[in-house]
Design a protein that fits this description.
- The complex is a heterotrimer of chains A (395), B (396) and C (253).
- With 395 residues, chain A is mainly α.
- Chain A is built from 15 helices and two strands.
- Chain A has two domains: 118 residues, no CATH class; 235 residues, MetI-like fold, CATH 1.10.3720.
- Helix content of chain A is 75%, strand content 1%.
- Chain A has a two-stranded antiparallel sheet.
- The longest helix of chain A is centred in the first third of the chain and has 41 residues.
- The model of chain A has no long low-confidence stretch (mean pLDDT 81).
- By secondary structure, chain C is of the alpha/beta class.
- Chain C has a six-stranded mixed β-sheet, with helices on both faces. In chain C, strands 2-1-4-5 form a four-stranded antiparallel β-sheet, with helices on one face.
- The chains are: A mainly alpha (395), B mainly alpha (396), C alpha/beta (253).
- The interface between A and B is large, with 89 and 90 residues.
């Protein structure tokens, strides 16, 4: 409505000898933004006030204020409009501002994640010394709620938050996953980029990428119901004991899940190696395999390394597969047939069910989250830097 | 022809051995690649065969033909409606509906009708010959006898699609989870798509290459790599504890997933905008169009298929996500579909997670069936994205 | 009379459906430089790449006819392409040193072919190859720096050194100077003059002056046909065909 009013007013100025500065539509948009922006700003302000429990405005009053501001804005906008008014510039400015606000939300998200994790972690480290958390080998948080409830630790065994066995479990499962994913992913990438025809590659790549599109909860079910019993049976025929929550099953399945991360990225970087290098090597009478091993792969190495780093960060942050198929018991062992637990499992365990935000047990989830955040950020930044180097080399 | 110093076919004798070895290494390398691909694809086939094999029985429900006594006493105690020895054979979920049914149809009282009714889940599992069906041997004999009399049949399990979660497996379905998924995804879409597209437009078309822009770029790359569970921590700390959004609600889940999907949509949209050649922009600027006019009239329409594809892929990913939703409490037991976005809700992947943790054997096939439904939806979404990309792809 | 090294008989080549070479008959003489000239798309590069079967890598490319190297058909089914290429080396239009050290660039192929052990044998082989490519003086103090850090002309001579380290009989050059400046070009031309004492050189060139300067024989191609082939002096002074005359005098295309 405001759009047509603004446009109409502007059009009324247009005569045979006076030309509008901007297209009539812009005057309409200008009027609209003068209605919508103040109204939106006020609603936002009130809802923020509501969240912080400063004061709550009754709904009718809110509506009235919004409408009032809106019409004031409209009146202001209409009074502005005349033939010389530069509506286009004004509207462009508003649009630009809106887009900028949207872009800022991504920054806010990061800040939100960092703040939410750091704040609660700080509370956690006030109770549990950070050194004990990093180097302790015992994770026995069961008695933490008693301290939270006000009991001092005379009669109660102190809760232990040594995260080493948890990191060890994460490391073990990630290692198994990478042992599966790197060879398969890399060789699949080599085959797709160097051997397969263009057509075959067009079919193979999406098929592999289905693996990355399967929800992790599905993988978790598959690992727990199908793979774990399989591993227990196989281990049994070799005379080995395996837990149903062994680290091998989630590791294997996670490895399969991240194959496409490695294969797709590696395929891209291998194909980015200039054809002239392959020609140069083949013209010297080397075989295809020798060319790939000695010339193509070394040239693509930075990209492949960065793909692997991304895959690692994906593996350590993976949650559902380990929640469903790995154990709950922190276990410092090198035997992948035993049950082990991971950082993400412990976060889920601490935050599902009833939560007491005073309990160190609940807060430990945020401390573990902080470690996870730092680890993935470091891996990601390294991989971005490596890829940038690679690009500079060939562009 | 003159005197050739080379033996035939350019192979000198002393090199033959070495060459053989190199040839073998060459074909071995080829085979490594083929094997790797074969392994990955074999897993894919094994996976789908296994899941489908487990899921198919869930689409069938066993029914038994029994005498139902429509007596006055059944209004208060529904167990009175069937013979004592059949009480464990007939579905309790069905029996529980009897009192209400009788009150609505009083004319039935006093009748004794032989009719097909749903069987108990243990009977169902026993008929399907699943290990761990949990049916006592006493009832096994009864059921065997009934089977011989032809009083047992299997029908399509419509309940799986029309009812919500239940503690009785024969009555458990995906309806409430599906509604929850739709609510959650709608919120995700309404927030993530506009903000994501606007951010991408700002970065590609409006921003100067300054410090702030570069920070946003690095930041978006980082956000895309952050594990999804950390978004759950964010949702819990900011949306639920700080802003007071109800726990377990579709709103909390949708907001959390929206933040998670944002970087995917931004990256896809930027790629789509980048693929529009700058000659188009220059042409529009050359005609005196403003930045906004150029973007709105020329660049966006051309980038639309790419934006659409990216958004679909991002939403498909959000639809399959579970971990952050666990943290914001969307794994609650929700038997009835939510009416609005503030009520406790659950989503399909969370339903799968809950059922996977149930001990009754009958839930296992239902989990697989829910997985099959979820995978079908996700693969169709991705297929749609691929189709759109192929169909609208433009070569510049 | 010069002995024939490479003999091409009625060679036809297709890229998919389109025929790029329509039956070429030509003989290249041993230890001489033959220049292939002609306008873009005339098939001269295609012909060159047939000689060490680099065209095998292009999908949809097939040939008919025979190419004989020392009397043996290089397209015979039992021929090993890899071995063939150790006899017929190739230098490309754009210098393409491997992203390795200068030393490794040269040592790479001899090591794979087992031409020298890794110790002083290999050092000697590398030095010889670099000397014969007349780049030794410029790089002898920085053998272990990346080959990609050299200038364009140096890179191209490094690629030549890399090629002759395998000890081929024939060297194919695909416009080896088109990416280089005049001074670097002059150096490469000098080098080619040196190399023809030992190698049969077949080069494609865009520059007729270059063909006239350094080649012994010249072949003129047009639209996938060999129009004229003869001693360079004759071709550039008294061509037999009107088309050749038009092309070398610039009245063409």
């Amino acid at each position: 409505m405001a759009f047509w009013m603004g446009r109409g007013k502007a059009l009324s100025f247009e005569t045979d000898d006076v030309r509008l500065h901007s297209r009539p539509g812009f005057y309409g948009l200008y009027a609209v933004s003068w209605i919508a922006l103040p109204a939106l700003a006020v609603s936002l302000l009130f809802s923020i006030a509501h969240i912080f429990n400063l004061f709550t405005v009754p709904a009718p009053m809110l509506l009235a204020t919004t409408l009032g501001l809106g019409s004031a804005g409209l009146w202001f906008a209409l009074s502005h409009i005349n033939a010389n008014f530069r509506a286009r510039q004004a509207v462009e400015k508003v649009m630009r501002g809106l887009l900028f606000t949207a872009a800022a939300i991504s920054i806010l998200t990061t800040i939100g994640i960092v703040l939410s994790v750091v704040f609660e972690s700080v509370r956690f480290f006030k109770v549990i010394p950070i050194w004990d958390f990093i180097t302790g080998t015992q994770w026995q948080p069961d008695t933490a709620f008693l301290i939270g409830a006000g009991r001092t630790n005379e009669s109660v065994a102190p809760p232990l938050f040594g995260s080493l066995p948890i990191f060890a479990g994460t490391f073990m499962i990630t290692l198994i996953a990478m042992l599966v994913a790197v060879p398969i992913g890399l060789f699949a990438a080599i085959y797709m980029s160097e051997y397969a025809s263009h057509n075959a590659r067009g079919h193979l790549k999406p098929m592999l990428e289905i693996l990355a599109g399967i929800p992790t909860v599905v993988y978790g079910f598959f690992a727990a119901i199908t793979i774990s019993p399989l591993i227990v049976n196989i281990a049994h025929t070799f005379g080995l004991e395996a837990d149903y929550t062994n680290a091998l099953a989630p590791g294997l399945i996670m490895g399969i899940m991240i194959i496409p991360f490695i294969s797709s990225l590696s395929d891209d970087v291998i194909r980015a190696v200039p054809q002239s290098l392959r020609d140069g090597s083949l013209a010297l009478g080397t075989t295809k395999a020798e060319t790939i091993r000695h010339i193509v792969l070394p040239a693509a190495l930075p990209g492949i390394v960065s793909a692997c780093l991304l895959a690692i960060s994906r593996a350590i942050g993976e949650t559902m597969i380990v929640v469903m198929a790995a154990g709950l018991r922190p276990n410092l062992t090198a035997n992948p047939l035993e049950g082990m637990t991971t950082v993400t499992v412990k976060i889920v365990e601490a935050l599902t069910g009833d939560q007491e935000f005073d309990s160190a047990f609940t807060l430990s989830a945020f401390a573990l989250g902080l470690v996870l955040l730092i680890a993935t950020l470091i891996l990601n930044i390294i991989s971005i830097m490596v890829v940038r180097k690679f690009r500079q080399q060939y562009e | 022809m003159n005197n050739s110093t080379q033996p035939n076919n350019f192979i000198s004798d002393e090199k033959k051995l070495r060459q053989k070895r190199r040839e073998r290494a060459d074909s071995r390398f080829h085979w490594y690649g083929l094997t790797a691909l074969g392994l990955a694809l074999a897993f894919l086939v094994f996976f789908f065969v296994d899941i489908i094999g487990q899921a198919v029985p869930a689409f069938y429900q066993t029914e038994v033909k029994v005498n139902i006594h429509y007596v006055e006493a059944a209004k208060t105690n529904y167990n009175k409606a069937v013979d004592h020895k059949l009480r464990r054979v007939v579905s309790r979920a069905w029996l529980r509906t009897l009192p209400v049914y009788l009150k609505r149809h009083p004319e039935l009282i006093g009748n004794n009708i032989k009719q097909w009714v749903p069987a108990d889940s243990r009977v169902d599992q026993y008929i399907k010959q699943h290990n761990g069906h949990g049916l006592k041997s006493k009832y096994q004999r009864i059921v065997d006898a009934m089977a011989e009399e032809g009083r047992i049949r299997q029908v399509f399990n419509i309940r799986f699609f029309t009812s919500g979660d239940s503690k009785l497996p024969e009555n458990a379905g995906i309806f409430s989870a599906a509604v929850g998924s739709i609510f959650t995804l709608l919120i995700t879409m309404l927030i993530a798509v506009p903000i994501g597209v606007m951010t991408a437009i700002y970065l590609e078309e409006f921003s100067e290459d300054n410090h702030f822009t570069r920070i946003i770029e690095v930041n978006i790359n980082n956000l895309a790599a952050i594990p999804s569970i950390l978004y759950g921590l964010l949702g819990l700390a900011i949306f639920i504890n700080f802003a007071g959004v109800p726990r377990s609600s579709a709103l909390a889940g949708g907001l959390t997933l929206a933040l998670m999907t944002l970087p995917i949509i931004i990256i896809a949209t930027r790629a789509a905008l980048q693929s529009v050649p700058s000659s188009i922009r220059e042409a529009a600027f050359g005609l005196g169009a403003s930045r906004w006019q150029t973007t709105w009239h020329h660049v966006l329409p051309l980038a639309m298929p790419g934006i659409l594809t990216g958004s679909i892929i991002g939403l498909a990913q959000a639809m399959g996500e579970t971990a952050p939703l666990l943290i914001v409490g969307m794994v609650a037991y929700v038997p009835d579909a939510p009416d609005n976005i503030l009520e406790a809700a659950t989503v399909l992947p969370a339903q799968i997670y809950t059922w996977a943790g149930e001990s009754l054997r009958a839930y296992e096939e239902r989990t697989a069936a829910a997985i099959l439904v979820l995978l079908t939806v996700l693969l169709s979404l991705n297929g749609l994205a691929v189709y759109l990309r192929k169909h609208f792809e433009r070569r510049w | 009379m010069n002995t024939s090294k490479v003999n091409i008989k009625d060679l036809k080549l297709w890229y998919g459906e389109s025929e790029a070479l329509h039956g070429i008959d030509i003989e290249f003489s041993e230890k001489r430089v033959t220049a292939l000239i002609g306008p873009s798309g005339c098939g001269k590069s295609t012909l060159l790449r047939c000689l060490n079967r680099m065209n095998d890598r292009i999908p949809g490319c097939r040939i008919e006819g025979q190419i004989l190297l020392d009397g043996d058909d290089i397209y015979a089914p039992e021929v090993d392409v890899v071995q063939l290429r150790t006899h017929v080396g190739m230098v490309f239009q754009k210098p393409n040193p491997f992203p390795k050290s200068i030393y490794e660039n040269v040592a790479y192929a001899p090591r794979i072919h087992g031409l020298a052990g890794s110790g002083s044998d290999m050092d000697e082989l590398v030095e010889t190859a670099l000397r014969r490519a007349s780049i030794w003086k410029e790089v002898k103090d920085k053998l272990h720096t990346p080959g990609t850090a050299l200038s364009g002309g140096q890179q191209q001579r490094l690629c030549i050194a890399r090629t002759i380290a395998v000890q081929p009989n024939v060297i194919l050059m695909d416009e080896p100077c088109s990416a280089l400046d005049p001074i670097a070009t002059a150096k490469i031309e000098e080098l080619i003059d040196e190399l023809k004492r030992e190698f049969t050189i077949i080069m494609v060139t865009h520059s007729m002056q270059q063909a006239a300067r350094i080649s012994d024989q010249t072949a003129f191609f047009y639209m996938g046909d060999l129009i004229e082939f003869g001693e360079t002096g004759t071709i550039f002074t008294q061509p037999e065909k009107q088309q050749t005359e038009d092309y070398i005098t610039g009245r063409f295309g």
